[in-house]
Structure formats: structure tokens, C-alpha cells
Amino acid sequence: xxRQLIHSPVTDSIVARILVADDDPRxxxxxxxxxxxxxxxxxxxxGGREACRQLNTRTFxxxxxxxxxxxxxxxxxxxxxxxxxxxxxxxxxxGESSFSSVSRALRKGAQDYIKKPFDPDEMLTTLEAVLxxxxxxxxxxDVQQRLEKSEALHRYIVNNSxxxxxxxxxxxxxxxxxxxxxxxxxxxxxxxxxxxxxxxxDEQDIARGTHPxxxxxxxxxxxxxxxxxxxxxxxxxxxxxxxxxxxxxDHGTLPLGADFNARTSGPKARFYGTARDVTERKEAEAFIxxxxxxxxxxxxxxxxxxxxxxxxxxxxxxxxxxxxxxxxLDLDRFKVINDTLGHAMGDVLLQVVTQRLxxxxxxxxxxxxxxxxxxxxxxxAINSSNDARRIAKKLIDALKAPFQLxxxxxxxxxxxxxxxxxxxxxxxxQLIQNADIAMYHVKARGKDGYRFYxxxxxxxxxxxxxxxxxxxxxxxNNELRVYYQPQVCAKSGRIVGLEALVRWQHPDRGLLxxxxxxxxxEETKLIVALSEQVLAQACRHxxxxxxxxxxxxxxxxxxxxxxxxxxxxxENLIRQLKNEEFPASHLEIxxxxxxxxxxxxxxxxxxxxxxxxxxRIAIDDFxxxxxxxxxxxxxxxxxxxxxxSFIRGIGNGEDDACIVNAIVAMAHGLRLDIIAEGVETDAQxxxxxxxxCQQIQGFLYGPAQPPEAISRMLDGQRVRxxx
Length: 723
Prior knowledge:
By secondary structure, the protein is α/β, with parallel strands linked by helices. It folds into four domains: 6-145, Response regulator (Rossmann fold, 3-Layer(aba) Sandwich); 149-283, Beta-Lactamase (2-Layer Sandwich); 294-458, Alpha-Beta Plaits; 477-722, EAL domain (TIM Barrel, Alpha-Beta Barrel).
């Protein structure tokens, strides 16, 4: 096909022929009218098939295509245009704005991309720019053919190039630079003539920018391409990245070199080159790299970057015979806050927590977000465990102050496990895993503290996985058994309560005690399902004994911190009691002081709701935690259980007996019931009776017993009562 040049009757200038293709008739008509009003020769095509037909029959300077069209989409039309009219420019006008669609369109040859709905002025500007670029390409071809006669036109094209175009002498000084330098970097082209191009290089890139031009192997057929950062004029704009391609000028074969040097004074041009602004690409690459190695919410290193740094730190510590520490941090009560206030508030909390934690670190330490509310911390090159201990205390103290989230004031603690190299492991996985194990030991002891890993904590990985698998199977196969330890009236000797204690009848290992599997259940979050099974069994047993005539019998059940901190703890517990038809007034839940003080406000509300339903509240292991008279007065507490460690001191002249005296006197003053745990001798029983302690629990009346043994004890008690 022969291209016809159509002249405007008004300006006598060449008018571009434009093909507009879209499957929306209304948009097609609107766009065609707009272009026609600007003096362009417009041909409309409704759909991709019609567009291809027009391309087969007419010649166009530019095609404006929608991507989504029936029968043939925009990509297929572009492919057809490339075959039949390769000089026809392409502008995509589409509602598709995904990165993949834009990238694919540009790769297929589109000069620009306009998103629907478009602004008419912006569209016309883009159209003019694309047509201008096509004009430059055609003009550049013509200039190459008539170079000796068209130096003025050559300069016009160079100065309007989208890239910086320059010439250097053999010393590296500018002989020529186009006006693009003004818009990109802010320099006047005239002021740079005669100056060394090092003047534009960022200080860190001077060697990278000057070395390629000194390479003797550089030839016109083997140019040098390199990326450097160029300085902008003044300090308000950041320096920008450029891809520079430099060609040596062969004066014997290139007329341009002879002509240019003949018409200019000063040194001869030795290099010709272009500098393309690639700042946006470099920034995109930097952002992608940041995403790969950082957590975008907290901006902290992620797990991948942390393990890289830990691996390097281990190598350095091994070479220099130094220690290092790995800390595993897990936020306490974060899940409660996240579930209560929502994930948006939870994200804000993580960001503020990150700021406080970072304020405690040394230069060179690496804090990373490991996932969720878990963090890891690398302390390289420490002298002793005291360095790690000091940092751990600072981290705990940093989180003690309340956090303000909107209208809510919340408290978050942190449990920290610490592993030291090389004592706790010499590999990256060992150090992280052992710090994790130490952290769970902190959780099991009431949270908000730190512990160093020791061999006594070690659980063989294979056995641990095996035990976890067996525990999950045990929950499905009902292998858990509930044993009961009597709570006896100190005056009458009657059984008034039963504390439910779980046992696991393992098919291979026999009867396992809580210490053998409860820490693992807490760690794997199986403790909730386990506790629900225990409560269900206990409710059925105790309800049967109550119906058999033990009308005042009370069931005591320990509650896991994970259960109590759950937002629906009260709702779940009351629902389970109703399902089992167990009277709430016969249930007494046992929780520790540490659980209460972890979140006094939230826990007090839950306990009050339970008390309103008739459930009794007991403080377990009283005297070993906060022992605050203030919370005892505020909360609906019914019973204090004196920890057995104090009971052992009775009769031995130890100070523990004085503590028991104080606890019992305090309980009487607050009108609370007292249960003494771990009573083993008649002397201890007599002493406690003398103090007025109402109930006794311990080996003096036997260990925890299976339901059959408890039934016999209750039957015998009933027989003695009748006699």
C-alpha cells in the first residue's frame, strides 16, 4: 500500500490518519468526533474484526485500540497491524489497568496506554506525543540519509530526544549536550560545555562512570553500556539513575565526526553517547527487593533476611570465638486485642510495638517480624549472657506502659525465649528452635518474662512430633481420662468438692500425667479442645454423683490462660454447661493470679459475668503471684487455694507457716473460703484446723483417683452419714 499525504485545508500541514477501534458504539462515536474536531482524519471500527479489515484496505499513521473486544481483542489487532502496517503507531485506550495488561500491551508494540475513562485534554496530549515520536523516528531516518546537508535538522532531533545526547572529547569533557539535560537534571547545556562529565556523576559512582571510557576494547561495534546515578542541580531534587551507552567516534568512517569537528572550535569529539533516565525502573526494582526481604506493615526485616543475617553472624562468631544471642519474642494478649478491636487496630498496635522494641536495641542488632505477633531478635557479638539479659529486661519494660489505640487503652506484654551460641546450638535452625522452646516455657509460667534455653527444656524433635500426632489422635479417640482429688471439709472430713485432673491413657506409653503432655498442648493450641473434653467428662461424672445424693458436691476445674483470654470464654463455658445440663452453681473454676493481672480489666468483666451465672471463682496457687489485696477486693472471688509450697513449711519452724497464717486471716477478713493444697500430715491438718481453714486437699486423703474409686468413697461417706 502507498501512503497518501493528506494536507489540512487550513494549515496546509500533513494530517494524520487515525483508526479508532472499540466495541462500545457510544464511546467510539465520542472519541472519533473529538479527534475529527482536532483536524485528524478518523476511521471508526466497531470491534476487532472490523479494525483488521480497515487495516487491510487503508493506510494509517496511528491506531487507537481497546483491549477487550469480542471476536478479536486488542492484542490480536496489534499483532495483525504489525504484519500489514508495521509503521502504524498504536495507542491502547482501555479500562484494563492491571500491570500485566499494561506491560503486555507495551511489549506488543503499543507506544502509550490511556485508561478509561479518559480526560480529553490528556488523551489529545498523549496522542500528539505519540505522533510526535513517530515523526521523530521518520525524521531521524531522513537525517541519516541527508546528514551533511541537514545539520540543523539533526540538532533539532537530538535536542528533542527523550534521552540526553552528548559528545565527549578524549579527556572526557563535554563537546556537546542536548537540551534534555535541562528538563531531567536542571543544568543549562551551554554551562556544561568544556566541563568533565565527572561533574555530573554521583560521588559513589565516579569510578563506575569513568572506568568504561578508559577501556581500550571499546569500539563502535563494541560500545559500553553502564548504569550510574547523576546529580541534579541544587539539593531539592534527588539524584537520578541513568543508563549510559557510549560509542567511540571513528573519524575516518563517520562523516558526522569530521563535519562536527570542522564546524566547532576546541577539542575534537571522541565519544558519542545517550543517557536514558531509568529512575522509575530502579525504584521499582528497589521496592520489589525491599518487599522480598522486609515486612511491609512494620518495615522490619522478614524471616528470609533475618536468617541470612543470622547465618552470617554465626560464621563471624565461629571465626572470632564470640557469642551471639537469638531471642524469640511473642506478644502477650495480642490476640485478645486483635479479636476485640479488629485487625486494623491490631496492625497499628504492631507498628507501635515495633517502635518501642527498636528503641531498646544496639546498632547492629536485627529485629525481625517472624509472623503474626511473633518477632525474632539477633544480638551479634555479645560478651556474656548478661548482655542478652539486659536487653531482654529493657524490651519487657518498654512494653509495660499502656498503648493508646483510639479511645482504648490496652496493655501488651512480651514473652521472650533466649538461645546463646554456641551453648544452645551452633546452627541457625537450632538457635531459632531453642529460643522458641524457651519462649513457650515463659508462656507456661505466666507470660511477660524471659528465659534462657537449657538442656532440660529440650524435647527431641521426632518424639515431640510423634507426641503431638498422638495427642491429636487421643482427642479423636477419647483417650483422655479425668481423675479427681477430693476437697475435704476440715471439720467433718466430708468430701465437699472434687478437683478434675486430666490423665492420658496412651495406647503404648501407658498412663501419662499432665506434666508429660500439657506443655505441648499449650504450645500447639490443643489445650482448648483438651479442656473442653475434660470438662464434658467431669460434668457427666459429678452430675451423676450429685443425683445420687451428694447434693452439695462441687466440681473444681483448672482453666488454661488461652481459654480465659479468648473473647468468647464466658459464652463458650456457659454453653457447654447448658449442653451437659450441669448446674453452674456447682462449678468452681480455678485460675492463677498471673492470668488475672495480665489484663485485669478484661478478666474482671468475664469473671463478673460468670459469677452472675452462679459459677464460683477460685484463685489457684495463691501467694506465688501478685497477691494483691486490691484485685481480691474488686473481683468476684469466692475461694483462695493456698499453694502447697507454703503448707510444707508448717511444723518445721519455717517462715512459710507465717505466710499461711497471714493468708488465712486475710481470707477471713474478706469472707473468702480457704482450701489448703498439698496437706500430707496430721500435724499440718491440725494446724490448719486451728487457723480456721475450711477445706483440705492433698495426699493425706489420697492422690487423684479414677471415677470408680471416687464413687466408692462417696458411697462409703453416704453410708457413714446414715449410720
